[in-house]
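During the reporting period the student researcher (J.K.) took over the structure-prediction task from the postdoctoral fellow and processed the backlog of single-chain submissions. One of the processed entries is reproduced below for the supervisory committee.
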Amino acid sequence: MAKTYYDQDADLSLIQAKKVAIIGYGSQGHAHALNLKDSGVQVKVGLAAGSKSIAKAQKAGLEVATVAGATQWADVIMILTPDQVQAKLYAEEIASNLRPGSLLLFAHGFNIHFKTIIPDKGIDVGLAAPKGPGHRVRELFVEGGGIPGLIAVHQDATGHAHALTLSYLKGIGCTRAGVLETTFKEETETDLFGEQAVLCGGVSALIKAGYETLVEAGYQPESAYFEVLHELKLIVDLIYRGGLAYMRYSISDTAEYGDYVSGPRVIGEESRKAMKQILKEIQDGTFARNFLADQSSGRKQFLAFREAEAKHPVEIVGKQLRAAMPFLDPVTVEEISKTR
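J.K. obtained the following structure tokens:
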């Protein structure tokens, strides 16, 4: 079993005694910065000149500097920019401004594990990874709760990296829910696998396949949408609260029997083979190399995928149906993009 840390295991005064730079002010960045500020920590946000996020951070009462300036000022530097830009940003604006004994933190182990970032030996390197989106990290903190998190130490030059990283996690609220001990390798590989095989890739493909199967059989697109996408949240909420057993307890006997006899037919041996191959490509670096190569050459494949998926019928029908249900607080990518 993984070792788990809670509030009583972490000393908040350690991070309160440090100056913390949050590099980036997106979903995770804003949550980390504001939670730390509310926890009594000195925080400065590092952003590129001209960033649209400067005004947002300043409006929230946070001090803003350039990435280089924030790094020079700080004792602890948390990098919360997208994976694909971190290596370049680190090489150009962070590395030369780090002081020996500084703690360099990541919320995802991607660049350390795949060695696109190799910090000097005199730098502490840790992982402080909330297991949830940034807006929930902030919302639950304000409500008095917290998101579970992960902790790992890749490099311990000072002998204090673990204690300070755990203190940081307390500062953003994760020790309220529990922080699990892990490694950069485990966090990176399991995170990528979960996203690709289950949470994002697997679920998206399952939804589309179910929708297409019903529509091709002559059922109304609207009925298909409700059955394979809309109701998914209801089932996931049950699983989230009490696991598969609670979900099965809460649904009808008909649905539960169908779960047992049909689920293994959808996710059978071929699916398991595919999952193993996906994991192998994550472990040997194939996925990371392909992703970074596409990102560095104009994101042509990435953007083509995005454009094609936006045109899928389940997206078109869903947008129309959600617009008629304002109580869902529906959003569109187009609307959100205008605010960023």
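The committee noted the following: The mean pLDDT is 96.
J.K. will present the remaining backlog at the next meeting.
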